[in-house]
Amino acid sequence: MITAQAFSSIQAIERDVRNDCFPDALEDCDYIMAVENSGIEGFEWRYLTLFEGSTLIAAATAFTTRYRLDTTVQGLSKRFTEQLNRALPGLMQLPLYAIGSPVTEQCNAGTASHIPASERPALLAQLLALAHRDAAQLGIGLIAVKDVPSHDNDWSQSCQAAGFESMPSLPSALLPVPYSSVERYLEALGKSTRKDMRRKLRAPEPRVEWRNQIDDVLPEVMRLYEATLGRSDLQFERLPPAYFTGILQQLDNRARCVLYWIENELVAFNLVLIDEHRLIDKFFGHDLTLSREYNLYFRSWVVNIDYCIRNNIALYECGQAGYASKIRLGCTFQNNLLFFRHRNRLINGVLKMVKLFIRPDRHDPALAAAISES
Can you give the pLDDT at residue 70? Predict the structure, then answer.
């Protein structure tokens, strides 16, 4: 007999048992625990589980928040929706219950390793049903499944059968790294990009430092983070200092913060997750006044590729932003989908029309191109 249960803390689930549902995941139980403990403002966590007897057979991370419908809107349209939100905040913000996480690359849901693949669709359907019940108990009408890989037919079929609408989410940028050197990577780029990158790399080079802890420079890291966040239209959450320190502490050698110095001034940082298969770029923060002079973003890009080459890491997972540059830098893109449904039929009908306006590829030609390529 299968029983379903939702918890408010990941500590209610045994670490190794939960990780068995997410084999080879870098964003595993340790990562999710660090996220929970960091106290990201405006989010509450839910952990969905299915047990067969006393054995965990499926699990998913979920969260609740107040969601702004224009989160993925950019440019002039963003300015309009911000004015509308100030005038009528209840129109643009809705309580949301979402399977997934605001700080993982893709939907964090899985089944135990001993479960046959043929049983996965039924278990996902049961996780969806559990999410519906849990959201109803919390008084939340809008339910979503966030960042489902487009090739995951099990999720797509389960969501469609449950009456969910779908729309494109932000695609994941990926760069396979089969190169023997950075020079070989540059040679694989288009002629104009290769020439531009070589010119950028001739700029004065910052000092690069790989760290397992950043307590002594945390105020400077947060200054760079806040400055970078303020320039972004797409950021969903605001990360507190405890997120950065907690990830580094909880994941040990699977997380690093790369610091970029000009003399004694910290001018950029890059939080990354690492295992033998991939390097995941979680956040790059930089000082805009110095970024152009020292080409900090492109410098960090090459530093990460060089790390992958030297450590035989085959894949650089480089996040969900900056698509114009990443197209030029040779990335491929994994399309992701967002599924949603509101229990109120009238509101659900309105959201079905609103999604045509708030699709992320509607406002960014580079993002539209990335979605098209994937």
Answer: 62
